[in-house]
Amino acid sequence: MCARFHLVARQLRLRKEYRPTLEITDEYDLQDLFYALLRLQFDEVGTEEWTPPYADGARRTSYLLDWEKTVVVVKQTRSGLTSRDIAEQIATDKAHYSGRPNGATLLCFIYDPDGRVGNPRGLEADLSTVGDTYRVEVIVAPK
User: Fold this and answer.
1) Using omega within 30 degrees of 0 as the cis cutoff, is the peptide bond preceding 52 cis?
2) CB-based contacts of 60: which residues, under 8 Å, 6+ apart?
3) Any residues with CB less than 8 A from the CB of 42 and at least 6 apart, and which?
């Protein structure tokens, strides 16, 4: 779903007769559409809000799947947000969610509609990890 998300976002912009649509202009728009798409695939999608130190007081929503064994965090690239910043945010998210049950997965979807991440596959490889009891998978899309 993450790999094809941009196709959905782009299609929503191509409405007939110039009808208004949902445009993905920031992370909140991204969260709204992503949550709706998760509801197509999963009967139960929980949400959890917290305020990470990198968010300047703004609350972030995470999605809980498979009885909380999978946590999905979505991020959108923007001007001024570097790959290093993204790596630091994911490290913070990883520490926050590391207390989940054995076999838990943290899925970090980084939506990069403007191609700001210079090496998306490299970023995915650098930030994705598999531990004894916890897995972090990072997906950057589109590539």
Assistant:
1) no
2) 49, 50, 51, 52, 73
3) 65, 66
Q: Are residues 130 and 107 in contact, defined by beta-carbon separation less than 8 angstroms? A: no
Q: What's the total number of domains in the chain?
A: 1
Run means of pLDDT, 10 residues per run, the chain, 143 residues: 91 83 90 95 92 84 87 95 94 88 89 96 96 92 95
pTM above 0.85, yes or no: yes
d(CA 52, CA 96): 9
Q: Residue 80's domain spans which residues?
A: 5-141
Secondary structure (3-state) at 17: helix
How far is residue 39's CA from residue 22's CA, in Å, rounded to a whole number? 17
Q: Residue 109: exposed, middle, or buried by beta-carbon count in 10 A (0-12, 13-18, 19+)?
A: buried
